[in-house]
Specification:
Oligomer: heterodimer
Helix content of chain B: over 70%
Order of helices and strands of chain A: HHHHHHHHHHHHHH
CATH topology of the largest domain in chain A: MetI-like fold
Number of domains of chain A: 2
Number of helices of chain A: 14
Number of domains of chain B: 3
CATH superfamily of the largest domain in chain A: MetI-like
Distance between the termini of chain B: 22 Å
Strand content of chain A: under 5%
Number of strands of chain B: 2
Shape of chain B: flat
CATH class of the largest domain in chain B: Mainly Alpha
Largest sheet of chain A: none
Helix content of chain A: over 70%
Strand content of chain B: under 5%
CATH topology of the largest domain in chain B: MetI-like fold
CATH architecture of the largest domain in chain B: Orthogonal Bundle
CATH class of the largest domain in chain A: Mainly Alpha
Chain lengths: 291, 477
Amino acid sequence: MMNNSKSRSLKKHQKATNTIVYIVLVIASIVWITPFVMIVLESFKGETTMPQGYVAPKTWSLVNYKALFDKERMDFTQWYVNTLIMSFACAVIQTFMVLCMSYTLSRMRFKGRKFLMNFMLVLGMFPGFLSMIILKKVLSGWGMIGENSVAGLILVYTASSAMGYYVSKGFFDTIPKSLDEAARVDGATRAMVFFQITLPMAKPIVIYTLLTAFMGPWGDFMFAKYICNNTSKGMNVAVGLQNMIATSEGLAAHYTHFCAAGVLVAIPVTILFMCLQRYYVEGVTGGAVKG
Amino acid sequence: MKPKAKAKNKVVQGITNFFKSAANELKSFVKIFVTGSAATKLSYIIFGFGNLVRGQIVRGLMFLAFQAAFIYYMITTGVGWIAKLDNLGDVGAHDEYDPILDVFVRVDGDNSFTILLYGGISVLLCVVCFFIWRMSFHQSYENDLLIRQEKAIPKFKDDLKDIVDAKFHRTLLTIPVIGIFVFTVFPILFMIFVAFTSYDGAHDGYSNLFTWTGWNNFMELFNTKSSNLGYAFLHILGWTLVWAFFATFTNYFLGMLLAMLINKKGIKLKKMWRGIFVMTIAIPQFISLLYMSKLFAKNGMINKILLSTGLLDTPFDFWANTTASRILVIAINIWIGVPYLMLIATGILMNIPDDLYESARIDGANPWQQYVKITLPYMLFITGPYLLTSFIGNINNFNVIYLLAGGAEPNPKLLTTGGNASDVDLLITWLFKITTGTESNYKLASVIGILIFIVVSVISVIGFNLMPSNKNEEDFQ
């Protein structure tokens, strides 16, 4: 009897705390979602292009979206295409680089392995932007800045991307080595082990690397801004949009356009991300959460 | 052993190891020359000779081709570049009188930038040549040994097989390592040298040559009397560290809290809650950052609302006010970073064995004690390296600062040649402003880049020694 009432009061107590948790979660969700809702609402404002003191449009209209695709007035489509090209190129090249590096460091023991890892660790402590001053000069000699900055940026993003091998190596470390050894006993070369045994098992990490590499060019601002040299045709969306609303005149003329552009950028990236979310969560959490 | 002593020992050991291997190298150099066959001795002069006479035609020809190309390059251009390295050129582009046309015409002279670039490449080629030379006589000596032991010398067919088997690691690493060298190592080396020159917009190396200036650029940065560079640097460094501390730990603890709330027993729809926050990771940061920046701008929505409700009489410029802008960047960074931390923390929290909590409850520990004694140590143990990398990531967090407050008014005390920093600027955004500013102060940019490296490496060493996972590795096993 005594025990029963005790557990009942415990349950009551738990119910009360759970209610508080729910309230906190709801408030937090609102805080995190609201800005996005505001951007979406503002993108439909038909009455003005300037920032206003209210969120919901007075006249609903698609005029902002139409303006973005008006090639006479804006280079938005160009920026979008630039970023898409870079995304696909980065996804493929960077994944190749990272897989080569992480697999080798995880699976093979060779002279200089430790040195290579320490070397990359120290190298990573230099601010990446430091090397851009000379890289820009060299790329400009190759005609890869300004209008053609897409090519230059792909090189900048991917050439050293193998330095980000850590997550991927962590994954390869978890695949039992006995599988390799069994195959080697059966006469498989190391290359065959890599292509026919390990890679098929590494699907989650391959998708994780593809996804993060794909999202990279959408978020980069620093390198893209420096390499594009203020040439509108060579910008990615982040630089283009920032540039568009940087001055107060630009802000007054393009604020709602910016919101519409934000929606157009966010939709494909978010959809892709949500489809592959499982792999992303596994990559970040080391497989503990199957999200 | 104390961490300090440990680190010191490591350094001492590293230096001894270096000298040991250098001595070994010298020893083998002499030994191979003395005991090697005639072919090996000739391999010291003619690259790949030892390969060619033993029937390794392809290898030998590759060595030989490299040697020929190297010598040709060095004689035709390389030596010229290296010779000019000592003062980076004498005469830049200038106007010369043309007596036939009776006008001054522009004549190209030396170019300091090209000299430094190609001179550097030529020196690096010499280093590469040294290693290939070493390979040449070592390989020949290996062949000597194989002959003495009456074993077969590997043929081209065997080399091809090695590419996919015994030396597969080299095959896989070639492209990534070349990429790293060309696009990271070489540029960083170059910029380190630039820190010791007078390279900037006015001395662009074409019409106005730049030259070596020793430690001048570093002196200038620490000399508080002649300019306010030193003040600006310390001021910005201080804020960078404060920012990195708050940005890292607010995210860490709030993200952990959020993860614990969602993980709590009895909370339904866990996947949905998690999904809401994970979704915000997907949306490219720059959109929300730029939107927030404009929201709090002088003519932005927040000001308009405050004005219309009568709380303010004149618009308040959040980004011009030091305290307001600093609090805002940290607050908005929480909004940006917490979902990501929540995701990481969720994975780790799920791995904490339930019976740890069970026995704590039986012992009468309240939730707070459970958190302090179990959850927090476990989290710190696992996420130590992550905390360190995210602290360093925040030191170099360009996007959040620049996109939010890039347009902020510069602080008059931080006006410096080439880059006028505001009160929220970090070292990395300052570096960006200096590089892209009208004066293109490259020399100062390189100095700051090197100092960022020093700050980051010092923090890494300290952080690594503080890390619980470094101290007592067995605690949670």
